[in-house]
Specification:
The chain has about 230 residues and is an alpha/beta fold. Helices cover about 40% and strands about 20% of the residues. The chain has a five-stranded parallel beta sheet with strand order 2-1-3-4-5, sandwiched between helices. It starts with a strand and ends with a strand.
Length: about 230
Amino acid sequence: MRCLLIEDDTQLRSYVEKGLREAGHSVDSADNGKDGLFLATTEPYDVLVIDWMLPEVDGMRVLHALRASDNMVPVLILSARNQVDDRVRGLRAGADDYLVKPFAFEELLARVEILALRRPSASGESTTLSCHDLEMDLLSRRVLRAGNTIDLNPREFSLLEYLLRHQGQVITRTLLLENVWDYHFDPQTNVIDVHISRLRQKIDKGHERALIHTVRGAGYRLSDSA
């Protein structure tokens, strides 16, 4: 999942960014409504988290601008305003959900992940991914190989999801770093190799047909053929 967080509170923004990344998601952020609106209209996101009270352009104006341009990306509004009238105003403005500050990060994460999953179902796309006898259910976040459940941590799930969405294609380390780890530079780390190795142990070990392949000098490919 790729998320845009528009929040001017530095400490809160850092806290939410860190939590979302630890859960395996990619995050961009802005500390004001003007920059946030620019990102929201120029980059593809699965969900937006927007604070109501923002400098330059407030969250409601950002939301109105998005909906006026037919941008229907799911939006979660964050606000210290806890009155029913405030929540109703936010929802009627086009927000998909509303969360009152202070909040538990676990609740924000659950709400964001549910909102993100609305996009494929609303566009008629399947909420499951598969390759040969490997199946991934995006709604339940369950992975099966030959009918047997495979336990993956959030980062492994995101890595496998990316490979499944691009199965048959050669995926470079740079693409994985940018789209799964949210690194926009090469930190000279073997994190990709380590996670691919662990994922292979869980996905391919004990099966006659390997699905995760190394393309020497190029990257990796998930495919049901060698």
